[in-house]
Amino acid sequence: MIGIDIIEISRFREMKNLEMFIRRVFTQNEADYFVSKGSAAKGFYESIAGHFAAKEAFSKALGSGVRGFSLSDIEVCHDELGKPFIKFGGMKVNAALSISHSNKTAVAVVYISEDIPGMGIPFYTGLEYYKSLIPVRNEDSNKGDCGKLFIIAGSRGMTGAAYLSCMGALRSGSGLVTLGVPESQQQIMAVKLTEAMTVPLPEVEESGTISLDALGEIKRRLNKSDVCVFGPGLSDNDDIPKLIDSLLSGSTDFVIDADGLNCISRDLDILRKHKNRKSCQVVITPHPGEMARLCGLSIEAVQNDRVGIARDFAEEFGVTVVLKGKDTVIANSDGGVHINNSGNAGMATGGTGDVLSGVIGSLMGQGLNGYDAAVLGVFLHGAAGDLARRDKGEHGLIATDLVEMLPEAFRLVNTAV
């Protein structure tokens, strides 16, 4: 894809409101570059014209013109040798740029390859912040250094949730992932999961759900784990609240999702005791229905005050809350709140929340605290959904599409300049 633009330099030399125009169209870095050329010098106006032509040429190369973004989202930068390159939405893009001048005109030519990373997705703010959160691996790292995650998930007819949580963790960088699953389902998961280990756990035979008899084996596994994800596809029985109540007395950090939350909603003293002990970090990941059950409110009431309810619950129970939905709210026990800006309606499909539990658990296992892991994990999860929508559209998007796009979401953030 090629875009070309030519513009007369005199247009900017004679512009009456040039200062206002610069503030509206260019970034601060670009404005500083113009000043470095001398405010009254020939190079000043040539630079403005060249940068503007480059922005127009880039929008033409996209094939869309300036739609869905502003010219200030396109930034013309220069490397150490003065060679120009383009950042789009805060991310350096694989676009060849040439800017030339004559006495009267500036010309810019942009060539974009069709597989340019990030094309077709929204332009995010704060990419540099998210990049700063991504765990950095040492060159001599081994799998034991990159997080050991134990996931307690799955039940008869609900093995997909366990699979998706494991794959979300693996695609987010976990060194070792082990799945604890009801013993009748272990062979199924051993076949379905190639890179994760599986452990059969004692079960309630009638329902195919984990029983209290699994407590000893789970505690042994947690002693060797950095983080535990508890809840995806567990279903419900009378033993599961007793399990989570006992497990939160240890030092292993937890991500609690889905049926784990439904069990806690029947006995909030489980979280109250955790707050008093402060022995581990806990992240909970409710959707609005689960949050409503936890708070004893209607879904409408939760949706009408998402930030306030998430923040109050986090402070009351000493946990990090991830209230899922459009503009997911992440709140911690110190009053901190972050509103996510990635994701789309195509992600409203079964299993995407299970993927998220694995992503957050993985990032905690790699050394992030619960709040930072939730902030970064939610963003990457949403970005993976946006990348999947780019390729597949919203209708028909499924949770495994997000799993496959997680590496590209990491790359998108890592290439932010």
Please, could you describe this protein's structure?
With 417 residues, the protein is an alpha/beta fold. 43% of the residues lie in helices and 18% in strands. The protein has helices at 10-13, 18-25, 28-36, 42-62, 127-133, 159-170, 186-192, 215-222, 239-247, 259-265, 269-277, 288-295, 299-304, 306-317, 352-365, 370-392, 399-414, and strands spanning 2-8, 74-78, 84-88, 91-92, 95-101, 105-112, 148-152, 176-182, 197-201, 203-204, 209-210, 227-230, 253-256, 282-284, 320-323, 329-331, 337-339. The strands form four sheets. A nine-stranded mixed sheet has the order 9-8-7-12-13-14-15-16-17, sandwiched between helices. Strands 1-6-5 form a three-stranded antiparallel sheet. The longest helix has 23 residues, at 370-392.
| Tally of strands | 17
- State the end-to-end CA separation: 23 Å
* Biggest sheet details: 9 strands, mixed
**Poorly predicted parts:** none
Which value, in Å, is the CA radius of gyration?
Answer: 25 Å
Overall geometry: elongated
**Sequence of strands across the biggest β-sheet:** 9-8-7-12-13-14-15-16-17
Number of helices: 17
What's the assembly state of these chains? single chain
Structural class by helix and strand composition: alpha/beta
Question: Overall pLDDT, averaged?
Answer: 92
State the share of residues found in helices, binned by percent.
40-55%
Percent strand: 15-25%
